[in-house]
Amino acid sequence: MTNDKKETKVERRQHKRFEAKSGTFKSESVEGEIIDISMGGFAFSYRDSEEWTNETFDVGMLLGEKDLCIEDVPLRIISDCAINRGLSMTRRCGVKFGKLNSKQLAQLEYYIWANTDAADLHTENDSD
């Protein structure tokens, strides 16, 4: 019976998430390391400081390998919670992309390919 309940869990995400090998998020009020990313949004971690006043942001910038930069990315904060890592307090913030233009969508696809293991996963799926 327990296994049946686990199998009936519905995945709510529309887009497959990929663990980031590298990448940074920046806004006017916060900067952090990207944890995972999809075509629908991403999560990043940042150090909690007195300067961070739980201000919301609705636009940011993604930075990646080889000077890759996606600017003016529309965002909406979905979650923001504390996680502990060693002696300093770190937070994890989940954001959803707003309406991206065609250039940003193309840049995002390339960003995911260049900064995650998405290319490796695609290759594995092709061989099935």
SSE blueprint:
Elements: H1 2-7, E1 18-19, E2 24-26, E3 31-37, E4 41-47, E5 59-63, E6 69-85, E7 88-97, H2 102-115, H3 118-126
Antiparallel strand pairs: 1-3, 2-3, 2-5, 3-4, 4-7, 5-6, 6-7
What is the fold-level CATH name, i.e. the topology? Answer: Thrombin, subunit H
- Uncertain segments are 121-128
Helix content: 10-25%
Biggest sheet statistics: 6 strands, antiparallel, barrel
Strand order of the largest sheet: 2-3-4-7-6-5
Order of helices and strands: HEEEEEEEHH
CATH superfamily: predicted glycosyltransferase like domains
Number of beta strands: 7
Strand content: 35-45%
Number of helices: 3
Q: What is the rounded distance between the termini?
A: 31 Å
Total domains: 1
CATH top-level class: Mainly Beta
Question: What is the average per-residue confidence, as pLDDT, rounded to a whole number?
Answer: 81
**Principal-axis shape:** globular
* CATH architecture field: Beta Barrel
